[in-house]
Design goal:
homotetramer; mainly alpha
């Protein structure tokens, strides 16, 4: 359980819904790759499909990140938890 | 249908099996995030889970890429399809 | 001239100094690659050196980003420029 | 000294020249950022410039990688050094 989460910094419900929809679609895409791997696919076709799923996940990450910046990081100085929020954000942005 | 694929440059069966196993595990992880989004998760916890799935997909991509280099690209000069293989590989490596 | 910059959201002087030092070192590294290219280097040795410089630039970017989050983004709600700051930050984080 | 380099797998001279030109331009860009840091720049302007240099280095890396794939990796099966070339290439492509 994340201590900051208990401050009720929950993900915005509208963003949560869009993230769900996009992840469901990414899951469908992943299932397509699994089906592809039951046959005899060409390596590069598999690589392209993996890359497409990665792109979809990047978009979900961007949605969540933008919402987090707007709703939580931008008001950190008011709440007094800037150091914690910035430290954990930097960690999650590494090599993203 | 990829024209080079018809040259029967199929993904190595052992790699195909390992890729399948890892993608099944990534799919399970994705389902976990979907479940998480039914509740009221903290943004950064969602970002961390998405990043973990990305890391798993990176590993599958690496497996397939390594196999492709070993089994297909390394013998391209012998087959005479170097230009096609390198062009499509560069495309798939962009921003990866 | 960036309109937000005029709000005097300048880069923190200590971070600016560390960024300078690290960029000077990256520049020296780059000059080393240029020297290497006067000879007959092996491709992969060049790739490794480029990757090292990229890593050094990533670290400078992280320094500046962390400082920006702490000193400017975290107080955006107080100043009332959250939307602008988040929009430009998302732009710069794309594919980073 | 890289043992494979001694097999005289040198970087193609034309690519070497283009890489040099692009690295010189990247170096000029880096010097511009250093100059910028003597003043009081806005964080995001610094981040954008660092990102631009990274993009320029990515392009140099792509040039060298493409040449390496065409001239060395594609003929690895003929020379019999596939395993070494693929291993070192996978290493350099990690997190690129």
């Amino acid at each position: 359980m994340n201590p900051i989460a208990e401050h009720t910094l929950h993900l915005d419900p509208k963003v949560r819904q869009e993230a769900r929809n996009r992840l469901l679609s990414a899951k469908g895409h992943l299932e397509g790759i699994l089906k592809m791997l039951e046959g005899e696919p060409y390596c590069v076709d598999v690589l392209k499909q993996i890359k497409a799923v990665q792109g979809a996940l990047d978009k979900v990450g961007d949605l969540v990140l933008k919402s987090h910046l707007e709703h939580h990081v931008a008001s950190a100085a008011q709440r007094g938890d800037t150091d914690e929020l910035v430290a954990e954000l930097m960690e999650v942005l590494k090599y993203r």
